[in-house]
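[Q] Does anyone have a clean structure-token version of this?
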Amino acid sequence: MSKLGQGEFVVRARLVRSYKDEERQPTIMGTEFGVIYEVKLSAVMNGTTDGSLKPGKSLLIRQPPSPCERYVPRNFSYDTDRTLVISQRPDGIFDLVGGED
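[A] Here you go.
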């Protein structure tokens, strides 16, 4: 998490709810379904932001399906904050890049 790319942020967030994609993607070792996480930010720890990411803000984070292994937050729950690395795409959508359990 020490080397962030353009548009990447490290945040602490708590799960509000999650939604699983209805469309299945074929895979061998990855995840067949994408997930949208609705989270509430508790801290913005790293990354250059325009000020729109603030503690208390609700945010939707997309985790698209993947044909290979990728980071999936373990024990991501409603009562525990998790450190997540998110990336903001040019269209404004946030993708889950990684994290720390």
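[Q] Thanks! Anything notable?
[A] The mean pLDDT is 85.
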